[in-house]
Amino acid sequence: GVGATRARAVPGCATAVWTHKGHWTPDPGWHHWATVAMISAIAWFQVGIAIAAGRLVVFGAKSASWSIDVVIAPLAVGWVGLAIMASATHLVPAVGPGDQVAHAKERQILGRLSEVRLIAANVGTAALALGLPLRIDGLVTTGPVILTAPLTVHCALVLAAISTGPPRVPTTGHPHSPP
User: Fold this and answer.
1) Distance CA 57, CA 65 (A)
2) 170 by DSSP, 3-state: which?
3) Rounded CA gap, 179 and 173, in Å?
4) At what angle do helices 137-164 and 114-134 cross, to 10 degrees?
């Protein structure tokens, strides 16, 4: 159907974006995290959709074809989680207050430990993606433990990047400003 066609189109769109990407900043860690985390999110989306579609083909349109255990890790953790983290990494220096120098500082902070965070996020997601449907307790326990590190570090880096910008001074006199 239409949903399956759109799901198949996502990698093509990502490939088109990748081949036309800009090289406008000298921040390899930031570029690496923002780009590869989003590509990872797309890959996890494809895994989740493939699993769900495969189960429909194998079991047919009946309740046995649906199981939250087989799609929760690829879709909620891998796709949504990595997409949110990649988006925050991109948006903080893109739309936050400050000049080019402030944004460069934010990108430098957000790019720290990019490779380690990407590996940990994907390994933790994979552990859950395998452990939940196969009922492997060690992976179900290990996955969230591994995921805690990149998530905690990412949140700390986003907060650190936000705090390096100019002070956020509340505006007054705007109709939606507090008195």
Assistant:
1) 8
2) coil
3) 8
4) 150
CA distance 68 to 1: 22
What's the pTM?
Answer: 0.80
| Angle, vertex CA 56, rays to CA 53 and CA 61, nearest 5 | 140
CA 120/CA 40 separation, integer angstroms: 12
Residue 97: predicted pLDDT = 84
Half-sphere exposure at residue 139, Cβ-oriented, CA atoms within 13 angstroms:
14
Distance between CA atoms of residues 22 and 19, nearest Å: 9
CA distance 91 to 67: 34
For residue range 103-142, what is the model confidence (pLDDT) as tens digits?
999 999 999 999 999 999 999 999 999 999 999 999 999 9
- Spell out a b/e string for 124-151, using b for 16 or more CB atoms within 10 Å of the CB, else e: bbbbbbebbbeeeeebbebbeebbeebb
The token pair at 52 is 């769900």
